[in-house]
Amino acid sequence: MAKNKLLRMDNVSIVVESLDDIISFFEEIGLKLEGRAVIEGEWAGRVTGVQSQRVEIAMMVTPDGHSKIELSKFLNPPVLGDHRTAPVNSLGYLRVMFTVEDIDELVSRLLTRGAKLVGEIVQYEDMYRLCYIRGTEELLIGLAEELGNQ
């Protein structure tokens, strides 16, 4: 029997309260809105296990076209839990990390839009400068600037 071969990772999904606010936040980071749609119907509930769901989604894509984030706003049923303010040592999915060109400039811009620096911008050896921020809706976002590759 042939072994299945992984082809790619398509996207990461994040459930949000306001698609417009989150789209604007990710556009500020540099992602582009690829499309928006309402997903519903019996088939969708069979995939997710959430029957009678009605979800508005927005697909954001990185400038290189290789990575996507699916933003989901549940219209029905209501959201059951909220993990956005969990500390970084919590179990489960936690954050998305982006490599950026100028971490100081981007963090400064995001702070003026209400983001909060979680710790501080630190340098890891001679390879990266890194930080975590809490963005719109308290989403935890990692930012990394590669050093010596510019």
From TrEMBL:
The name this protein goes by in its record: VOC family protein
Domain of life according to the entry: Bacteria
Cross-referenced CDD domains: VOC_like (cd08353)
SUPFAM superfamilies: Glyoxalase/Bleomycin resistance protein/Dihydroxybiphenyl dioxygenase (SSF54593)
All copies of domain VOC, residue ranges: 8-146
Entries under Pfam families matching the protein: Glyoxalase_4 (PF13669)
